[in-house]
Write a structure and sequence with these properties.
- There is one protein chain.
- By secondary structure, the chain is an all-alpha fold.
- The chain contains seven helices and two strands, in the order ααααββααα.
- Strands 1-2 form a two-stranded antiparallel sheet.
- Strand 1 (75-76) and strand 2 form a beta hairpin.
- The chain is globular.
Amino acid sequence: MRSVLALRGVGGALQRIPRGLAPLCVVAWMALIWQRSSIPDEGTTTSVLWSTAHNFLHAPAFGFLALLAVLCLPRADAWPRLGRGGVACVLAGVAAYALVDEWHQASIPGRVSSLLDSLTDVVGAVCTLGMIAYLPRPSACDAGLWCRIALGLGLCVLSAIAATLPDLGR
């Protein structure tokens, strides 16, 4: 129960950010993603493992974007209300920005624009939202949390591999 309580504490601390400031956090993170996506790829490392690891990093970056977007949602009992509408808005926003990010990367020398990278972005967001939805449940326990973390990591790795495979022929 220690892990669940620790993450509930982190979530509670994040919920102390005023909702009016939450969109600024989202925009700041999006700007950081944009800046990182603007760096040309020198093409110095071409291993499959490196490419997969690079693609995998999309998941936590966009998972964190989803976490910040959740701070914009209405709250109840110091936790976001993750109804269908809220989840749909967060996922639509993350997916839209993932597509914008890939469009942006298409104009950067050495960068590859791929819809499969956007899939990894959305998988990271879905996994994050799943964790956020699980933590406030009275039945939440460490075993359930670690199971969800393992499942989420596995899905993120699989999506990163799927995003890497088409690049192998380039």
